[in-house]
Structure formats: structure tokens, C-alpha cells
Design brief:
Elements lengths: L45 H40 L5 H14 L5
Amino acid sequence: ASYHAASYGTKCDTNIFNRLNDKWTTNPRTSIPNLYMAGSDAFLPAVCGAMYGGILSAASILGYGGSLRLAFAFLSEFAHDLLEENPKMGRVAAYLMAIKNFITEPVAN
């Protein structure tokens, strides 16, 4: 049974966004050097919060450049799949379509 029909039984409390909690909500860093939180502890409750919390932690660890390299790796994989499906498509066209698909298409279940 879930708490008042909350996602996966998670009781959501808006108090996590009080000024008192600014140092730990939506922030994967901790007071211990090189220790990061991931999942719902780093962002918001429930499954989506856990997913974004993991992304936020990875981005904090990788830094700006590392995050861009990770995003480019995903796009490269998407473009590679498009090129395999349509070998006549040019590489630039495949990357542009990969970006468009990444932005506009819903995630497959």
C-alpha cells in the first residue's frame, strides 16, 4: 500500500525544500570530501527523483567537460544505430537526427 497514493509508497514532504535543508537537497555533495550522494537522496523522492539524482551526482563528479563527453557518447551511440538502420545516411545527418530524436521522442519502456 502506498502513502495516500504516492509514487511507490514514498511520503513526499515539502519541508525538504526549507532553507534549513539547502545544503543537502538537490545537491549531491556532502561535507566529506569526495563523497557524493546519488539517487533520491541527492534530488527528489521516488523513481524519477532517484534517476535525476544519479545524473546530478555523475555530473558533479565528471565536471562540465566530463558531462559533455558523456552526453556526446550517448549521441554517438544513437547516431551509430541510425547509420546501421540506414547506411546511406550521412554521418552529420545521423548526428542531427540523433539530437532531434533525443530531444523530441519519449523514452521507450
